[in-house]
Design a protein that fits this description.
Elements: H1 3-27, E1 29-31, H2 32-39, H3 43-55, E2 59-64, E3 77-82, E4 88-94, E5 98-105, E6 110-117, H4 124-142, E7 149-156, H5 181-189, E8 193-197, H6 198-208, E9 218-223, E10 227-233, E11 236-238, H7 268-272, H8 274-285, H9 291-299, H10 303-327, E12 331-335, H11 343-356, H12 359-362, E13 366-369, H13 376-387, H14 389-392, H15 395-400
Parallel strand pairs: 4-7, 7-8, 9-12, 12-13
Antiparallel strand pairs: 1-3, 2-3, 4-5, 5-6, 9-10, 10-11
Bound molecules: zinc ion.
């Protein structure tokens, strides 16, 4: 065999190995059949590569049920995962009103997690200091070493400049103006930190584990204290040229409507966010109404609350109808606190989309609530560490790949 030929065979083998490792990082746990489907390699090639990875201590077998495969007389299948000791992923999720931090192994198992209310808009330094404390706490609780962390992703509820890792729009996250969030967090944590928009992370989580699993054309709307959006095309996040693709919260749905924190009038966020609806409810009830209280009132059948949530659903419907005309998604996932109102919110969205989108754009589009709830963005941050395998590969895995 010529050296050129053996060289190309070796690189083919390396390429196949890399595909299998990437598929395992994205899925956490998978059967050999799932790996064959995901990589389009033959079952025998998968068996050889998985055997090599197990021999090298980079992968392990475990019992489990493969997705979408009928169990054989209830017998659990043999699944494959990357060896948990091969590395850890860190997630730092900032909402406008909360901070959540978690550490997971490479099989996507969350080892420890912390959450607290926090006025994130007010001060980046305070937020980052608190995140740094939480990271120390989760690493201690999980009894793992910082050196095992292969990457950290930090979600922020604002448009993110992909090149600089800074917040684009000062009015949306005022306390973070001029802060190089990625650099600041990397220094404080002594780890490489990537910054990503929170709704993009929610989209990735619902795609990997939730309501959009197995889909490839997905729009995700995070409807919480703000309204954000993430777009998945061909199974990958769409960022746009500068990183702000999917900012549906600041599209105009009512001409000359209520003023928004971005300075415009009639933005979707000013009409449909949990903050906007709770504010209206506070006025009509002459008492301060929190998002949680609003959802309780809706569950108990309070007519005024349900009407206001329905109005928010119709505003969302206009934005989603326009979105369907533009990107023709298979699935629109509505996440964030407001999605906990269920069909009180979603039915008006569906009605307006059916009425206003061109029929061919929305005929095959399902509109569903997110299933990962308030942990979606944090889980998405963990998923992104796995997805960005090239950048984050641990030394052992980098050599193997
Ligand atoms: Zn706005």
């Amino acid at each position: 065999m010529s050296s050129r030929r053996s060289g190309s065979l070796a690189s083919l083998r390396e390429g196949n190995r890399r595909l299998v490792i990437e598929a395992l990082r994205e899925r956490g746990v998978a059967s050999r059949a799932e790996l064959a489907r995901a990589t389009e390699l033959s079952r025998s090639t998968i068996s050889t590569i998985v055997g090599d990875l197990i021999d090298a201590g980079l992968a392990v077998e475990r019992d489990g049920q493969p997705d979408g495969e009928a169990s054989h007389a209830g017998r659990p299948g043999v699944m494959v995962a990357l060896d948990p000791s091969a590395g850890l992923a860190l997630a730092i999720d900032f909402g406008h009103r909360h901070l959540r931090v978690a550490v997971s192994d490479l099989s996507h198992t969350v080892l420890a997690e912390r959450w607290r209310d926090l006025d994130v808009d007010a001060s980046a330094r305070e937020g980052l200091a608190e995140a740094s404390n939480f990271v120390d706490e989760v690493l201690t609780e999980a009894d793992v070493d910082r050196g095992q962390v292969i990457g950290a992703v930090m979600g922020l509820p604002a448009p993110i400049n992909r090149l600089t890792g800074t917040v684009w729009d000062s009015s949306i996250l005022p306390g973070w103006v001029g802060i190089d969030a990625a650099a600041e967090a990397s220094t404080r944590l002594n780890l490489p930190v990537t910054v990503e928009n929170d709704a993009n992370l929610g989209a990735l989580a619902e795609l990997t584990w939730g309501a959009a699993k197995g889909r490839s054309e997905v729009a995700y709307l995070k409807v919480a204290s703000g309204v954000g959006g993430g777009l998945i095309s061909g199974g990958r996040l769409s960022h746009g040229v500068g990183g702000t693709a999917g900012e549906i919260g600041h599209t105009i749905v009512v001409h000359d409507g209520p003023v928004c924190r971005c300075g415009n009038h009639g933005c979707l966020e000013a009409l449909a966010s949990a903050r906007a609806v709770a504010n209206l409810l506070s006025i009509s009830r002459r008492e301060q109404v929190s998002t949680r209280r609003m959802l309780e009132l809706s569950d108990s059948g309070d007519a005024a609350t349900r009407r206001l949530i329905g109005d928010a659903g119709r505003a969302l419907g206009i934005a989603v109808a326009n979105l369907c005309n533009i990107v023709n998604p298979e699935t629109v996932v509505i996440g964030g606190d407001m999605a906990l109102a269920g069909d009180v919110l979603l039915d008006p969205v569906r009605e307006v989309v059916q009425r206003n989108a061109i029929p061919s754009a929305a005929a095959d589009t399902e509109i569903v609530a997110g299933v990962l709830g308030e942990r979606a963005e944090m889980l998405g941050a963990l998923a992104l560490v796995m997805h960005e395998s090239e950048r984050f590969a641990a030394p052992g895995l980098r050599e193997a790949a």
